[in-house]
Structure formats: structure tokens, C-alpha cells
Amino acid sequence: MKIAALLNQAGETADLQEEGSIYIFERNCKDEWLSEIKLDFTPVKLGSMEELRSHIGAISRRLGDCKVLAAKTSIGFCRVAFESFGVALWALEGSPRSFIGAIEAFYAKQTKESAVMTEANQPPAFITPVAGKAGHYAADLRNVMAHKAGLNSKEILLPFFKSASFTRLELDCDHIPRWFDQELPALNLRADAEFVNKTVKVVVSPQ
Q: What distance in Å separates the CA atoms of residue 29 and residue 21, rounded to the nearest whole number?
């Protein structure tokens, strides 16, 4: 596994709008996390959405097969943009030594647990039942997408929609997944959305 970190001159995570360099870490033969790759970094400037996405796309391509990036802060749109390029953006403070083990442990756990549906045909761990309401579930898709490198919302949710027995799924999102318009009608599902405090609240239920 490779983990990238945007660092300042002090060796601690930098903000996406600050000067810094990207270091790509990987375990060596001595089981130590070391970085042999250093990439120049041009701070992200808040311009148009197209400019931001183009900039983030260029960063993601330079990361190559590294699909995890840690930085000091995570702007909502930046997180979504990185996710669209298959990169999970982690908002963390400090030096890589203080957090890189936790990131590795998170993904190690995810490989043991099913990232989608379990063999028992139960919802994945991040989709939780709503207490006292049979068939009702909830999930914060923002956190899921921030940490599931290499997976997009369709790969995460579609198996649940196809296999699980549910009457209502409440999602907190940064935006309504674009594939909903095509896939949900075919599954006899509908999505209703509203904006609440800069969060998109989406309710998916049978038609």
C-alpha cells in the first residue's frame, strides 16, 4: 500500500492552499514506512469549479497508483473532486509518523470486512439501521467516500440497492450521485433530496 502526504517544511501536513510538497510513503523490506518519492505541489486556488477540478485531476494523475492523500484540511468540494479521480483525501494534522499507521489499519480492516455486501447478504458496516424503524437505514456518504480509496459511490451503494431488503435509506452527501437518475428507476427506487446546512440529504426508497 502507498500513502501520500502533503507536508510543509516542518514535516507536518499542510493545507491544500499552502506551499508544500507531496511525499509518497511505502513500506520497505524492513517493514518501515519511508518515502522515496517527492512531488512538487502547487497550492489549490479557489477559482471556478472547472479550474479546481482540473488542478485536482493533475495532482491525482501525478500520484499514480497511490490512492490515499493526507492533508491538513479537507474542503468539501476538494474531497469530492479527489474521490472522482479515485483518491481518498484524509484531513489530518501532524507528521506522517503520527497517523500513517492509523490509515494503514483502517484499510486493513476494510479488506477483512466486505466493502459492499457480506456473504450473509447484510448491509455493509457503514450503512446502519435506524433504531425502532424496521427496514430504515442511514449512512454518511461523505465520510465513506473520504476513506474508501479506489471506490466510487456506485460501487459502494449499488450492491445494497440490488440485494438488501429496505424501505428507506437516508444519505448525507456532498452532492446527489449522478448515476441515480439512470440506475434507480430500473430498480424501482426513487430519490428525494433537500439541502440542510450545506449538506445534501437524500432519501432512497421503493417507488
A: 25
